[in-house]
Amino acid sequence: EKGRNKFRYRENNFTFGYNGIWFSNPDGLKYRYKLKGNDIDWNYSNRNQTRTYSNLAPGNYSFISEVSLDRRNWFGSDDSFFSFSISPPLWRRKWFIILVALSIVAAIYSYIKLRVRSLQRDKRLLEEEVQKRTDEILKQNKILADQKNEIEMQRDIAREQRNKIEAQNEEIQSSIYYARRIQSATLPPKKKLDSI
């Protein structure tokens, strides 16, 4: 299209036509052409022709064609030069790549933030559960300590009662022994009593 030099990324197939006019010897003309941005070296031809470039990548290009009579002196004109650009697709444009990169960074940041928040909540719940269990264990330890003290008190009371009972038993035994001694001292021996 005349006057248009910006194309979308799907508009990437171009055909350029070039020709030179020399009435006295048209077969003596030599041509060279180059698509800057695609061709590294000049391409040479002996006749008028068209050149097609297919599937050009996004970027800036300039098609240049020149004519020569002796292959030493090359001539071009304003009409033998055409500059154009092919826009990259949306997903290859800088602002889109930056937006995607920022979105990925934001997503990673959000994920980390949510994960940290979740871990902190889990930590708090775990600490509460540990504290609850610790309180239960301390309560049970206090109950066991109280029971132990009660058992020790009852053991001490039982020991005192046993000691009292043993002391009373010794007294009774001692009294019985003393009564026997008195009885045997005051009464004649049993043989003598049996013989009477």
State the gist of this model.
The protein has two helices and eight strands, in the order ββββββββαα.
Which key terms come to mind for this protein?
single chain, 196 residues, alpha+beta, six-stranded mixed sheet, two-stranded antiparallel sheet, 8 strands
Describe the structure.
The protein is of the alpha+beta class and 196 residues long. It contains two helices and eight strands, in the order ββββββββαα. The chain has helices spanning 94-186, 190-195; strands spanning 6-7, 14-18, 30-36, 43-45, 49-53, 59-68, 74-75, 81-86. The strands form two sheets. Strands 1, 3, 4, 6, 7 and 8 form a six-stranded mixed sheet that branches. The chain has a two-stranded antiparallel sheet with strand order 2-5. A hairpin with a 6-residue loop joins strand 3 (30-36) and strand 4 (43-45). The protein is rod-shaped. The chain starts with 5 loop residues before the first strand and ends with a helix. The relative contact order is 0.08. The mean pLDDT is 89.
